[in-house]
Amino acid sequence: MDRSFWTLRVYFALVVAIVALHLVRQPCSADPPAADPGPLEIPLTASDRQHWAFQPIRRPAVPSVSNVDWCRTPIDRFILAQLETAGLSPLSEAERPVLLRRVTFDLTGLPPTPDELEAFLHDDSPAAYDRVVNRLLASAAYGERWAQHWLDLARFAETDGFEHDLVRPNAWRYRDWVIDALNKDVPFDEFLRLQLAGDELHPDDESAVIATGFLLCGPDMPDINLPEERRSIFLNDLTGTIGSALLGLQVGCAQCHDHKYDPLSQFDFYRLRAFFDPVEIFKDHPLPQPAPPPPSPAERELIDRLVAAEGELRALDDLLRQRLKVENPDLQPTRDDLLKALTDEEKPRHTQLSQTIATLKKSVPTREIPLGRVVRESAANVKPSRLLIRGDFRREGPEVAPAYVRVADLKTSPLAPPSEGKTTTGRRTQLADWLLDSENPLTTRVIVNRLWQHHFGRGLVETGSDFGKMGSDPTHPELLDWLATELPRQGWSLNALHRLIVTSAVYRQSSRPRLTDQSPAQTARDNWHRALQLDPDNRLLGHSPRQRLDGETIRDALLATGGRLMARRGGPGVRPPLPAELVATLLKDQWQVSPDETDHNRRSIYLFVRRNLRFPLFEAFDRPDTSASCARRNRSTIAPQALILLNSELSLASARDLAGRLLAEPGEAAKQQVRRAYRITLGRDPSAGEAEMALEFLTVQAARLRDSNRPATDLALPRPYPAGTDPYAAAALTDFCLALFNLNEFVYVD
């Protein structure tokens, strides 16, 4: 035998000997293994709180600047102070059409109409722009636009996700609540409290209870074999979202071990999770309803007759049961047994009573109580919360009580015990109060930074959900704290903060220099080139940043330009038709098209949100994965974006609708149609060169189509198509509208 064989035999013998020796040394008694003591929590040190985000918020003084005349709000002084320190100057105000398009898309997610543009261009009063801002903030479209930003954070969807992706039939109620709350300008402190503890604060208020849907937005895997594992995964995800969305801390990193960089321990994570441990997670619950009005005399008579008939029928059935029990004591009679036991004299009366009850039930008014995916909690029999060793739900560690995140709890606030007579623990109410406490260094900084981010494309802190040591430092720390103190001063009104930002001079800047602009010491163009060298990423905001529209806004703009955008609001998510090639890949009934075709043209926020299937246009334009909280959407540039805008059914249908709109409006001359098309799609008039190019295209394209000898039925004719119109010229107008949709200017806002 070769040497390797004997080597293996020797190795095997050694292993057996070691195992045997280990077994011999084991104690004879069946003592259980020693309990795992679990992790130990390292105390916080003074250096742990030295990071800027953990410092108390103090209202800074508004800085002095040289170019005072440029400033419109205190915000401008903070921006200008850094620009002047860097030797830079801001650009002048954008032209009116550009400014109107910017603020309209920003606040409502819709393009300005030609009438709105005309009115703004002819309003010479100093308050013209302020009136535009107030109109936009007062419109229902404002809530529909800004609700999507919050829903991205909340991970809102109408299905569970994972393999089966089951539908949540009542999830839409929370989406509608967010829209309504923003349109009513519910103060942010109340907005947050209701979502964390609306059922504790106002248990009889349907709206307040629906708000708690925020806590239940996350993905779920109902087919997990172990309920404890399913619940633990959901609570961990919820706790991580609370940390990132509200505190700007990656708390979820500490569910298995202490955070590697921030002073967040595993105990911090499970103490925060303990606030939500008593919550019922996986059921829809009846929503509180006001007491019904007393019945009218006629309704009372019907109810009395129904009660009497049901009582008589019940007595007759009891008599039949007794009769059958005498014959067979062990029988558990069914409905068929009861009917067979009727005598010939009893049968007519039994039939008459059954028919009377069925008729009366149709006439007696009934009240259906709606269900909602909302939080339900009971203070009775609350189990102790425990740290999970290595995050494993099967390895329970030390008991933990709910407590605030230590590094952000500057006052070391104690948690009050449950109140006597309360049906809930009151934990979530106290958590909301702590989050909104003036001494909490994070919550208000986080929300004002998010508002700034959505207005400028980048937050003062670029990592909006990570204010920790691995996140970005603020570009304007004093401005961040000034805004964080200004929000409570404004009564927590988000509208007031929006107004302050969009009326500032920094927001109203041009995105590029104009040839006629002059700065005090040099031309605007020279200043522009200097800014590109010193501040290439525009972090100092020396000019307005261009921003690309997201997929939902592009779809809404396409529908709006064609005049087909439906104003209907609220209700379950709508499912418009999908491309046939995509439907072929889906499971049966995974996307049942909504029967009402008018619903297919509603705003994108009302489209059904399925975690495992994103609407194709949204997929191409970076809609986030709803399984995770999204602080800032990606902004990619990929080929499918151009292909969808050029070739999709939505783009072509919108081009036909716009062409039909142009043909139906007064002024049939091609020059007027071109001007009108530019105003509808781009919010401005065409330049002389653009107008000339457009007219040439219409002429050449009509001739090309005519020479192709294609029948009119094969052409992309406008909708509606006016009788007697040259079909080739009309189809050329459709192609022109489609070309406008494919301009960079259509999907980018200056």
Describe this structure in words.
With 750 residues, this protein is mostly helical. It folds into five domains: 53-138 and 472-545, no CATH class; 222-287 and 375-430, no CATH class; 297-368; 548-638, no CATH class; 647-749, no CATH class. The chain is 47% helix and 3% strand. The protein contains 28 helices and eight strands. It has a two-stranded antiparallel ribbon with strand order 1-4. Strand 5 and strand 6 form a beta hairpin. Helix 3 runs parallel beside helix 5 (128-138), helix 6 (140-154) crosses helix 7 (172-183) and helix 23 packs across helix 24 (649-664). The radius of gyration is 33 Å and the shape is globular. The N and C termini lie far apart (83 Å). Residues 23-34 have low confidence and may be disordered.
